[in-house]
Design brief:
The chain has about 200 residues and is an alpha+beta fold. The protein contains 3 helices and 12 strands. Strands 4-1-9-10-11 form a 5-stranded mixed sheet, with no helix packed on it. The protein has a 5-stranded antiparallel sheet with strand order 3-2-5-8-12, with no helix packed on it. It comes from Janthinobacterium agaricidamnosum NBRC 102515 = DSM 9628.
Length: about 200
């Protein structure tokens, strides 16, 4: 009986050690993440390339089309497109998103989980479509603001980011800002970006 109890105790001890050794391994396998919010609407072309420091070709794979695809274009056209949230805090951009709505162009956002510590790249282009319209069968077109760029950045674990177009007079730039919440107030702090080459 004594030998039976000793063997059982040894087996339990081994199982306990194995469980303790396995726990850190499971934790280490969990990749650290960050979150990125991107905006879209008709007139905006936004593509995300995760874990890449360059912009891949059209048929190379790895492209996530945030805005500019058929489904999002139709949803933006008829106003049925919905936001996709991972729980990021609101910013002045999201709270005033309806102000960006145009004719047949509802604005929306999508949030993505990104691998932290690895570069991700964006290709963005915006062309104001509110000046394109048809009246009495005649198509009217006037010169409208446009903006675009290819950028890359490296997110840090546990941080939230927001990418957007910024206008200063007639000058446009593509920026990424970290979303920081302090004492109930949200701050948008610019982070370093670099031009993303094609690959």
């Amino acid at each position: 009986m004594h030998k039976t109890i000793s063997i059982a105790a040894m087996l339990l001890a081994c199982a306990s050690v194995s469980a303790q050794e396995a726990a850190p391994t499971a934790s280490a396998d969990a990749a650290p993440l960050s979150r990125l919010r991107l905006f879209g609407q008709n007139g905006a072309m936004v593509s995300l390339y995760q874990d890449s420091s360059c912009i891949k070709g059209m048929f190379s794979g790895g492209e996530e089309k945030v805005s500019g695809g058929m489904a999002s274009a139709f949803g933006s056209l008829i106003g049925s497109v919905e936001n996709t949230s991972l729980g990021m805090p609101d910013t002045p951009t999201t709270l005033n998103l309806a102000k960006k709505d145009g004719i047949f162009s509802k604005a929306y956002f999508k949030e993505y989980a990104l691998p932290a510590g690895k570069p991700s790249s964006l290709r963005l282009h915006f062309q104001d479509v509110s000046s394109f319209y048809v009246a009495n069968g005649i198509r009217y077109e006037s010169r409208a603001p446009s903006c675009g760029g290819q950028i890359t950045f490296t997110p840090h674990a546990g941080e939230d980011y927001e990418a957007a177009f910024e206008w200063e007079g007639k000058q446009c730039s593509v920026t990424i800002k970290q979303v920081i919440v302090k004492e109930g107030q949200t701050e948008l702090v610019p982070v370093p970006v670099a031009l993303a080459p094609s690959c």
